Amino acid sequence: MKLAAANPDLSKFLVIGALLFIIGVAGVLTRRNIIVIFMSIELILNAANLNFIAFSRYLHETGNVNAVAGQIFTVFVIVVAAAEAAIGLGIVIALYRNKETIWVDEIDLLKW
Amino acid sequence: MTLSGYEAVFFWIFGLAAIFAGLLTVMARNAVHSALFLISSLVSVAALFVLARAEFIAGVQILVYVGGVMVLFLFVIMLVNVGAEERGSEEIFNNQRQVTASLIFCLLLVGGMLYSINTGYRGLQALNPATPEVLAAQQATRDQAHQPSATGSSRITRDAESVGNSLYRYASLPFEIASVLLLVAIIGSVMLARTLKQEASVDDVDPGNAD
């Protein structure tokens, strides 16, 4: 890939989105604190939003009629992320009240 | 969609800031530091949205995502005591084999994604071969076609107008379903966060007998 391109184009947006996604996946897989795992999930959703907006812009420039669909999709991804964060953090609070811990390797009640 | 001139400079600044802040989110020891780095990453991505001419979505991201979801995260971090982590006595990563396996997986994912973006983009560029200068000139004419604002210093884009047009006409059913989803999320989170005493007082059950 040509690293010397000074004019960022669609591919640069996609690369930034891909790197944010992978950093989020690494966070989900490696951290012990459940709240940081939730924050990594928000990073993943944000990277997907960046992809949608980049393609919406690209389609708008090449004259596609459905170019605004990317931004509509982004609105719904933000809505779903907010709802999921609320429920997830409610579960974390209920879990903390019962087990007094936030470390995922200590939450092993369902383990055989 | 080529950005040129000062827009390219801002793109690199905000893009690298988003990636760096995301990396620090995952690597910070303190959970509050992680939340603040995530806020920086979200604001940088909102700036990238503005560069991609999606100003309405940038505003929604800052208001809803940063101003709502991240504030909720900070409140929950305050409720859940993380004193041991701050003092440095707790381990913040999983055990070493898991971390190594996930890092190998993420490196493979990086390679695969960059390869696929590179290959796909070459095909896309073949369909639309135009030099960056031509595209920048086209973009400049499009920008000049917008109506100037009242003070004359900037232009009023039609991004919010087009998003509203499509959202309330062609996406009105998903819009209504999203509002029902939010209602369900509100009810669910209120129910999940109740204490034992609050639940018992509603059902007229002795808290000692509640299971």
Give structural attributes.
heterodimer; A: 112 residues; mainly alpha; 71% helix; 0% strand; B: 211 residues; Four Helix Bundle (Hemerythrin (Met), subunit A); two-stranded antiparallel sheet; extended
Count of DSSP strands of chain B: 2
**Total individual domains of chain B:** 2
C-alpha termini separation of chain A = 48 Å
Major sheet characteristics of chain B: 2 strands, antiparallel
For the termini of chain B, the CA-CA separation is: 60 Å
The total count of strands of chain A amounts to 0
What is the overall shape of chain A?
elongated
- Overall, the morphology of chain B is extended
Average pLDDT across residues of chain A? 89
Main sheet record of chain A:
none
Low-confidence segments of chain B: none
Helix content bin of chain B: over 70%
Tell me what the structure shows:
The complex is a heterodimer of chains A (112) and B (211). In chain A, 56% of the residues are buried. Chain A has a domain at 33-103. Chain A is mainly alpha-helical and 112 residues long. Chain A has 3 helices and no strands. The termini of chain A are far apart. Chain A has helices at residues 10-30, 34-61, 69-99. Chain B is mostly helical. Chain B has 2 domains: 1-87 and 120-147, Four Helix Bundle (Hemerythrin (Met), subunit A), CATH 1.20.120; 171-211, no CATH class. Helix content of chain B is 74%, strand content 2%. Chain B has 9 helices and 2 strands, in the order H-H-H-H-H-H-E-E-H-H-H. Chain B has helices at 6-27, 31-51, 55-79, 83-86, 96-127, 132-144, 159-169, 172-192, 196-203, and strands spanning 147-148, 155-156. In chain B, strands 1-2 form a two-stranded antiparallel ribbon. The longest helix of chain B is centred in the middle third of the chain and has 32 residues, at 96-127. Chain B is extended. Chain B starts with 5 loop residues before the first helix and ends in an 8-residue tail after the last helix. Classes of the chains: A mainly alpha (112), B mainly alpha (211). At the A-B interface, helix 1, helix 2 and helix 3 of A face helix 1, helix 2, helix 3, helix 5 and helix 6 of B.
